[in-house]
Write a structure and sequence with these properties.
This protein has 287 residues and is an alpha+beta fold. Helix content is 30%, strand content 30%. The strands form 2 sheets. Strands 7, 8, 9, 10, 11, 12, 13, 14, 15 and 16 form a 10-stranded mixed β-sheet that branches. A 7-stranded antiparallel β-sheet has the order 2-1-6-5-3-4-17. It binds 4'-deoxy-4'-aminopyridoxal-5'-phosphate.
């Protein structure tokens, strides 16, 4: 089956899908994106993803290419045309293609819109969660507006590659004071010895994760103690449990940090429970 990609109003075969060499996403990372989970043929938390996309566009003054409903239509078409039941849908909007110039192009330059879908086995993801993942800490060298979901992901690529070389699946960024900010492509959480769930509060220094937001609903409903504050890497080493959240991994237990076991080195019961409850609280819309 040929993979189909949406590019600027057209659904084209993967091999033919291309944007201009002077696209500002390519030249300046002047672009934003969203990744939504597709599960059982449904889109997960679409409204929250769309709200964040619109916020990212507004923060960077990129013109909104179409309504959220129209973008939803594009995502559904790409999911259907690629027959994705479980996986993800990726949507990117750049400021468009124009002769290279740092200042923004005129209003006649339309934003570039690209949408791809990819199948990922749900069984494979669930299997991974049974063993958990290792993470490696790295200095957070990113810019100061990490709340905007831009494609400026080079620090994340460098961190994840270093993690991979150390046998870890994710990198945890650490700020100058020794506090964990978030994962290279996930939010970071720990559960302390008293059972409190701790994650950094929202601000300019982390992405407001959609999975994070939905998990806060789960925690409230389950009446679990939540503390939104920065936590030290040393607190993470001493935690009872740790986990990450992201749209494609939902709740993924962390069993090793910098080679040290978290708790007994196996996925903890709380992370497992939160993972299991997650989709009862996520908004599900048919794809
Ligand atoms: N932080 C960063 C830096 C990310 O790239 C991601 C994944 N997009 C997240 C957090 C998690 O966000 P979400 O739950 O919306 O996928």
């Amino acid at each position: 089956m040929t993979r189909i990609v949406y590019v600027n109003g057209r659904y084209v075969p993967y091999a033919d899908a291309a944007v201009h060499v002077e696209d500002r996403g390519f030249q300046f990372a002047d672009a934003i994106y969203e990744v939504c989970e597709v599960r059982d043929g449904s889109l997960i938390d679409e409204a929250r993803h769309m709200a964040r996309l619109e916020r990212s566009l507004a923060e960077l003054q990129i013109r909104r290419p179409m309504t959220a409903a129209a973008l939803g239509h594009v995502m559904r078409q790409v999911i259907r045309r690629n027959r994705v039941r479980d996986g993800l849908v990726y949507l990117q909007v750049s400021r468009g293609a124009a002769p290279r110039d740092f200042s923004f192009p005129g209003p006649d330059v339309p934003p570039t819109v690209v949408c791809l879908a990819q199948s990922i086995s749900a069984a494979h993801r669930d299997l991974k969660a049974l063993s958990g993942i290792a993470v490696k800490s790295m200095p957070d060298i990113r810019w100061q507006r990490r709340d905007i979901k831009t494609v400026m992901l080079l620090p994340a690529c460098l961190a994840k590659e270093a993690a991979r070389k150390d046998g870890a699946r994710e990198a945890w960024f650490v700020d100058a004071e020794g506090f964990v900010t978030e994962g290279a492509s996930s939010n970071a959480w720990i559960i302390d010895q008293g059972g409190a769930v701790i994650t950094r509060q929202l601000g300019l220094d982390i992405l407001p994760g959609v999975t994070r937001a939905t998990l806060l609903d789960v925690l409230a409903e389950e009446k679990m103690q939540l503390i939104e504050r920065p936590f030290l890497l040393s607190e993470a080493y001493a935690a009872r449990e740790a986990f990450i959240t992201s749209a494609t991994q939902t709740v993924m237990p962390v069993v090793r940090i910098d080679g040290r076991p978290v708790g007994d080195g196996r996925p903890g019961p709380v992370a497992a429970k939160l993972r299991q409850k997650f989709h009862h609280f996520a908004a599900i819309s048919s794809a």
